[in-house]
Amino acid sequence: MSHLLYETKNGVAYLTMNRPEVRNALSLDMRKKLLETFQSLESDESVRCVVLRGAGEHFMAGGDVKSFMEFASLTPVERRLTFVNRIHANLNGLMYTMRRLNKPVIASVRGAAAGAGVSMALSCDLVVAAEDAFFTLAYSHIASSPDGGATYYLPRLVGTKKAMEIALLGDRFTAEEAKDIGMINRVVPGADLESETRRLAERLAKGPSRALGNIKKLILQSSENSLEQQLQSEAETFGDSVMADDWVEGVTAFNEKRKPQYTGR
């Protein structure tokens, strides 16, 4: 059984983490396939938006903690080397590739998003969650610290004090609470999660792809740039955007007072 399912429809790629029997815990095979798939999507012009979701009743319940037991008998130094290498090998590359992907990525969350599941959701550009979804950055419960970029995104989204609370205590909180503190974008009834995710994804897939990619780039750069650097980057990406056929269509449609028909070119 493949640990990652892939399908495309109406310009949207749907990536489904497929280990429902363990709440889609992140196996090494799943990490590898996610990384390879996101890398291939960078140059796939037929895909204009990506949805990441979990099979069954949950999004993703973090790392495969049961498998960690095989390393418990190693020396401390051996354990350190093992996990540093594991994280660098696939997980860090995956998170970086998701961040730099030149098209929007939506996390569609139901049930549990725990540990690395939180990191994965935060790495997406938009997060839509079912009312029954819940979140917990539970690393402290197994005497470890977060990975997958959680400590990068959380302080930027919710502030340092709230990020400390979430990471240090590892408490479970609801989708509504996650929305209230700025971690996620939308909360919908569980029965509507699939349709609402699809509607949002297809809306983005019909948009001006080059401009949307540039918007994503600018927003993500802003926390590291000075004002001067950001103004320069805005000028450069605006210049890049106007090179697209979609820009001509957008300006023409605006002046003709009609809805633009973007092609992604």
Characterization of the model:
The protein is an alpha/beta fold and 265 residues long. The protein folds into 2 domains: 4-205, Alpha-Beta Complex (2-enoyl-CoA Hydratase, Chain A, domain 1); 209-256, Lyase 2-enoyl-coa Hydratase, Chain  A, domain 2 (Orthogonal Bundle). The chain has 11 helices and 9 strands. It has helices spanning 28-41, 65-68, 76-100, 116-123, 150-158, 160-169, 175-180, 193-205, 209-221, 227-241, 245-256, and strands at residues 4-9, 12-17, 49-54, 105-109, 112-114, 126-130, 134-136, 173-174, 186-188. A 6-stranded mixed sheet has the order 1-2-3-4-6-9, with helices on both faces. A hairpin with a 2-residue loop joins β1 (4-9) and β2. The radius of gyration is 19 Å and the shape is globular. It starts with a strand and ends in a 9-residue tail after the last helix. The mean pLDDT is 95.
Topology:
Blueprint (H helix, E strand, L loop, with lengths): L3 E6 L2 E6 L10 H14 L7 E6 L10 H4 L7 H25 L4 E5 L2 E3 L1 H8 L2 E5 L3 E3 L13 H9 L1 H10 L3 E2 H6 L5 E3 L4 H13 L3 H13 L5 H15 L3 H12 L9
Parallel strand pairs: 2-3, 3-4, 4-6, 5-7, 6-9
Antiparallel strand pairs: 1-2, 7-8
Helix pairs in contact: 1-3, 4-5, 5-6, 9-10
Summed up:
The chain is of the alpha/beta class and 265 residues long. The protein contains 11 helices and 9 strands.
Mean pLDDT: 95
How far apart are the termini? 37 Å
Q: Count helical runs.
A: 11
How many strands appear in the DSSP assignment? 9
Number of domains: 2
CATH topology of the largest domain: 2-enoyl-CoA Hydratase, Chain A, domain 1
CATH class placement of the largest domain: Alpha Beta
Q: β content, as a range? A: 5-15%
In this structure, how is the largest beta sheet organized?
6 strands, mixed
Unreliable parts: none
Large-scale geometry = globular
Please state the CA-atom Rg, rounded to the nearest Å: 19 Å
User: What's the order of the H and E elements?
Assistant: EEHEHHEEHEEHHEHEHHHH
**What is the structural class?**
alpha/beta
CATH superfamily of the largest domain: 2-enoyl-CoA Hydratase, Chain A, domain 1
Please give the CATH architecture of the largest domain: Alpha-Beta Complex
What is the share of helical residues? 40-55%
| Strand adjacency order, main sheet | 1-2-3-4-6-9
